[in-house]
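$ fold --in a.seq
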Amino acid sequence: MSLRRIGVLPGIVAIGFVIAARMLGSLQSLELAAYDTFMRLRPNEPIDERILIVGINEEDIQKLKKYPVPDGEIAKLLRTLQSYQPAAVGLDIYRDIPVEPGHKELASVFKEMKNLVGVEKILHDIVNPPLNLPQDQVGFVDAPVDRSGTQRRTLLAAPNHKNEWRLSLSLKLADIYLKTKGIELKEEETPSKEYIMKFNSTKIPSLLPNSGSYISEDNGGYQTLINFRSNHKPFRIVSLGDINNRKVNHSWIHNKIVLIGITTSSVKDYIFSNTIKNQDNSLIYGIEIHAHVTSQLISAVLNKRPFINYWNEIWEYIWIITWGCLSITLGRKLRSPLILIFYVFITIITFIIACYLLIFKGLWVPFVPPFLILTVNGFATVLAAIDRNEASLRVQIQERQLVINTVEKTFNIIHNGPLQTIARMLRQAEDNQEISTDIFLSELGKLNQELRSVYRLVKQESFMGGNRFYLNQQKEVDLKKSLHEVLNEVYIDVFDRDFPYFAAIKFNVVSFKPLDEKNLTLELRHSICRFLEEALCNVGKYAINATKVEIICDCKQGKNIIRVTDNGLGLDGVTNSSHQGFGTQQAMTLAKQLGGKFERVANSPKGTICQLTWSSKKIWLWKW
């Protein structure tokens, strides 16, 4: 199908193909990569001063000279923190078994601290909650990980192996903190049987299997996307040594949330997430993930910071189809390639900015499918516009060439008819020949008839499909015949004309043999006939004292040759320069079209040679 015929159907096919690829999950990795990029490009947010991370780093472990960290050291840390009166403390260190020394002391601290939340693991590789810590002070730390090995989601609530509904560490800490503000967590079921969790009127969006750009993703429990805080250092992080040595500002802990965890790469409590701004190749410690989720929950409730929301699946496909239809409309409404390129570019840029602004406001919309459709359809419509313009230009060139051809044909008819009669009359006048009135009137009558026949001959040549070559108003030649036969008819007709120097010619050597007519169009055959006609007419007009003419039409050694030779006065003796005029220009143009050569040279001992040679193998090269 021609590109200029591209319309609605190919655009719809592109939309359908992309939607099918999305439904099959083929675009999920690209969509998630785009999501990560947009999240990292968000402007920096201030540090969340409501959260402090106590990271037990490699230096702390080296000073303790023991790992896991003993219960006594954890008890000491908790008592120190409690002295600052924090709102909540999260201990992201497993304590399902005692780690001596100091287990009794830790058990005592567990019983005393009502704002403490310990951790357990309820799904795979189950880890029991800390000993001596009440169940309502335990949150799980299981984390859903995407197939690429990165974490973009968090699990807030899920049933354990006993089918007991459990809450995550982050949700527990947010709940304790928000209760100090008079805000409580509510869990309820809507009339549509949808289970929701919310703090007062702030609903936490639940991730479904096909939410956002996920396709059939595991959505067990109550999951939501993590709206990571956009900053290279989103939270204050202090070490165990800083707390023990009381190098921490009191205001960093008082009425704040404190999270305790491991922050050393030697203990593999970390994961990768391309969604965060991080200077450590997207590596993020588990305790930092919990801090991001906790910050997200309390910021949504207290500061109206948005969660990452997503449309219903049907609206996502309407979004994709809308952008696809826009790309089709551009292709059908705009015809100029440059204007179309500009609008396609502006549309794509507008789309990218729209996706970025929406995700900045907390709405994740499909990016890759519309982008692919806009790019593919935009590229196709630009190519179609270019093809349309080229087609229009070709038509204009053809129309102009038709005009030029018509002008040339008109001039050829006038040149070989009326102009010859006028030239003959002028020559007689220049030679002071007395012309009788009857002869003069006869010549004028002939001139009148030739001029009147010009229109008819031009019309015949223009509307007969180029199959005819008109020698005069009574004589026409079928160009579909063998070329050497057509040229022979041209020779016979021209020598019947009344040219002044034909009368003295006594010998005609004529040889018309078959030519290699491969790749010769009707237009080229027409021009070759006109060349021979012009060459023979020049003999009759300018070959003074010529007594012999040789006409050769042959194919030798892969070359076609048309040669007209006379023994007249020759080039040096010709005072009229018309032989270098229009006819010569036409012959040179014809030679170029044929990929051949035109020559007009002196004959020895006298006379002129007019010759056209070409190889049929070269014609297509010139045309290309």
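$ fold --in b.seq
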Amino acid sequence: MKSDKEETMMTAKLINVEGSKIKIELTLELSRSMLDTEINIQKGLNEVGCIASKEALKYLDTDGSPLKIGEEIWKSKGEQPKEYQTPYGEVIVNRHVYQRSVGGKTYCPLEREARIIITSTPLLAKQVSSKMSGMAGKEVKNDLLENHGRKVALSYIQRVRPLVDKSCCNQGSTGNPY
């Protein structure tokens, strides 16, 4: 038997992508419990955030055309799926991965353009780093779950923290809204 929370209707749909603009529709079911309604709103907004983040990452990817880096030509191995962690949830993006014709290491322009840290988008990495400055890892894990609806592994939190440098999160930003 499903609980009321499991039966709650909630859907976020990508309606349109036009250049750098996206349109997303969210449908939520309200509850007679304000707390349940607020939890549903948070889940719905996280769904919207995942859809928007996925589209933002795709927007930063290349079209698969060969790249000239220095004197070398790098060719796309095609789109390959990868999981990325965002403040709203995990998203899987098919992105171009490049390699030289002689083989060797690969390069993903999307990850450079998006300033991915391990598999985190900059805002999630910044949030984790900020929380870690005042809390232990387990507390950060609980805070992300309780206050943001984000379930993340403690090992993930511990790996991201040392790699975050405030300057990396501010590069390419058009302003800090906080």
